Amino acid sequence: MYLSTLFVHGILAVGVTASRGQRLRRQDGQVDPGQPSDCTWWETKEEDYQDCTYLEEGWNLKHSQFVEYNPSVKDDCSGMQFGHLYCVEVNNGIPRKGETTTTQAAKPKPTKDSKPSPTQAGLINTCTSFYQAKKGDTYAKIISDYKTFDFDDFYK
Prior knowledge:
Layout: H1 2-20, E1 30-31, E2 39-44, H2 52-58, H3 63-69, E3 84-90, H4 139-146, H5 151-155
Parallel strand pairs: 1-3
Antiparallel strand pairs: 2-3
């Protein structure tokens, strides 16, 4: 009983501390000069696939931002080195003063209704063929011309 209570208190203490503290990853490797003083998260290059594009896409950074945070990588990313830490977040992810973020609203794609308009109320959703009635058409004439349904189906 004592161990479970201690465990619960420990979990609660960690949760409260984590929610109050800032997210800051300790720098455990080589940090190149020129990185911003307000960098709050770094990624270490440990594998070949961890290039500029990988980090930019993973952290939703523009290439210009990544190079600004990590000038040693150079604009062509030839300066990335194994074991080095690269800044991928500044100011705890909050835009700095004077910085603005813009998002472009998704433009709705036009949809095409497969049904012509107007149609009668209660039309079934599985209907795939339509006929535009003309002046002088009757139920009997349409049923006779198509021969794929009877009066009861037509009237439903």
